[in-house]
Amino acid sequence: MAEPALSIRGLTKVYGNGFQALKGIDLDVQQGDFFALLGPNGAGKSTTLGVVCSLVQKSAGKVSIFGIDIDKDFAKAKYQLGVVPQEFNFNQFEKVIDIVLAQAGYYGMTRNEALPRAKQLLTDLGLWDKRHGNARMLSGGMKRRLMIARALMHRPKLLILDEPTAGVDIELRRSMWEYMRRINRDEGTTIILTTHYLEEAESLCRNIAIINHGDIVRNTSMRELLAELDTETFLLDLAKPVSTAPEVEGFEIQQLEPSQLALVIHRGQQLNGVFSALSEQGINVVSMRNRANRLEEMFVSMVEGSQRAIDQRAFEQEAQV
Amino acid sequence: MNATQTFIALWTLVLKEIKRFTRIWPQTLLPPSITMAMYFIIFGNLIGPRIGDMDGFSYMDFIVPGLIMMSVITNSYSNVASSFFSNKFQRSIEEMMVSPMPNWVILAGFIFGGMARGLGVGLIVTLVSLFFTRLTVEHPLLTILVVVLTSALFSIGGFINALLANKFDDISIVPTFILTPLTYLGGVFYSISMLPDFWQGVSMLNPILYMVNVFRYGFLGVSDIPVGWALAAIFAFIIALFLVALTMLERGKGIRS
Q1: Less CB within 10 Å around the terminal CB: N or C of chain B?
Q2: Residue of A85, A93, A108 with shortest CB distance to B9
Q3: Is the CB of residue B87 less than 8 Å away from at least one CB of chain A?
Q4: Residue B125 forms beta bridges with which residues?
Q5: Does B9 sit within 8 Å of A106, measured CB to CB?
Q6: Are β-strands A81-84 and A158-162 bridged in parallel, bridged antiparallel, or unpaired?
Q7: Is ipTM > 0.90 here?
Q8: Across the interface, do A57 and B256 touch by the CB < 8 Å criterion?
Q9: Shortest distance, CA A274 to any CA of chain B (angstroms)
Q10: What pLDDT is recorded for position A222?
């Protein structure tokens, strides 16, 4: 079996103030995967990725990129790695073309190699016309795309995207998704994505890890995770308002507004029966949609579950004292 | 990285640094030439004739090497301090940290960038001085050697300052409260032979005195202190500070959490 694109064993990070950001996590991301690393703010996502790309010093543990141990040959490992960070981290006063060409130079690419690559990436990402403009003049979405172009200059095999679509409008976000899908599918680039848009993770990623309080609380495939979802809530828009929530045996229905109902469906339940029953009561449904993204419901329940477990442990320890 | 890739990375960083200070030339190249022209006019032309000779030379000829050295020191230091700190502040230093560039290349790139500005400004000030005096250079190779070494030394100093700095104020404290007094008291405007014995002894503790004197020796052939010792001291400082800066960089001081 091929080496994982990223392998993490017992990764621990304790900051100078004593805060333990990572508590010995293990994680494997296979080659060619589109992998989501999710967690609430402060869970340890950025610390994990910071260690992988050398911006954070680990306290203990082992990290390998395509089988290359970063403690033994970090420079070689870095050739495989492209990073798009959460915050803008380029010199805002430099020209777009200078930023991407300088990055290529840092990887030892000659100008003759770098120029066609820069042209291709900036064109693909809609920035070629802006190449001679100062980076600070770009819109937020353009700045994010500039960081993607910069990260891809040296043709990395593993691309880390730390909230790449934060603050980007929906149209642009979807075009960025398509671009990420393309480099994952056509070029075989392994992608690790962190995002707060769970719809994005559900739509793009095949595997997922959820991190909370410095621990991996779940690491599985997206399909398996979503299959575990016990309930889904749908919003039903009605043709005419109703005075009270209708009762349908075996289903939980709440009235949100006179013309809107919330319908909770448990795993294994069929929707047809609800519509027939509503129709018999003279209630016609004109449209239906998910109240929340499916992954979001799962994510919230896991994070809350992990928080409850932590609170319980703290309570028990306090009781023993 | 192989040798070619390492050279490309270093060259990329040096060119980027040169582009930076030439892009903002009204802030970096113009002010020192104006300031030094004022020194030449006021101290050299107006007050100088009343002071008379210094160590057997006209006062203008005496102060020119010191003023060139002063501008080289200040500009080498402040270029690296402000550029590296600005990279830290804007987080664009991460571009270099995530790349396979060795730390010594990052350090060398900033040092060469600082030297390019320091020596560039030194050249401009030298050209400006030609409007006021006729320069003679007694020992050209020594003159070039000492100015290059001094520029390298203060570029490293600026780098360490930027690594330790947490805010913009921190990169102006050293130039204002340490570098400027040491430069003014480093024999730029007077010969230390004019001082009482005690203050001559105190002056000998000032490293800038050695650089100014050796540089002046290169131009005029006279020095208050032994040239060999001064060169050895500059070399020793460069090696020591380079190792300190590299160790701090390896440990991620001020840039890695």
Answers
A1: C
A2: A108
A3: yes
A4: none
A5: yes
A6: parallel
A7: no
A8: yes
A9: 55
A10: 84
* A120's tokens: 């291709």
CB contact under 8 A, B92 and A81: no
Amino acid at B43: F
Residues 6+ apart with CB under 8 A from A48: A8, A11, A22, A25, A27, A37, A211
Q: What is the pTM of this model?
A: 0.84
Nearest to A75 among B1, B86, B92 (CB): B1
Contacts of A33 (CB under 8 A, 6+ apart): A5, A190, A191, A206, A207
pLDDT digits 0-9 by tens, A55-74:
999 999 999 999 999 999 99
Q: A4: which DSSP letter?
A: P
Residue B134 CB-density burial (10 A; 0-12 exposed, 13-18 middle, 19+ buried) = exposed
Selected for mutation to probe chain A from B18, B99, B106 (highest A CB count within 10 Å) is: B99
**Contacts for B11 with CB less than 8 Å, ≥ 6 apart:** A105
Minimal Cα distance from B255: which residue of A? A55
What band does B236 get if pLDDT is binned at 50, 70 and 90? very high
Q: What DSSP character marks residue A8?
A: E
> Per residue in A210-264, pLDDT tens?
998 899 988 888 888 777 766 778 888 999 898 888 888 888 888 888 899 988 8
Amino acid symbol at A184: N
- Report percent pLDDT > 90 for chain A: 51
Token pair of B134 as six digits: 């006729």
Is residue A163 within 8 Å of residue A195, measured between CB atoms? yes
Q: Which amino acid is at A162?
A: D
Q: Are B162 and B107 in contact (CB under 8 A)?
A: no
C-alpha span between B178 and B196 (Å, rounded): 23
Sign of CA dihedral A231, A232, A238, A244: positive
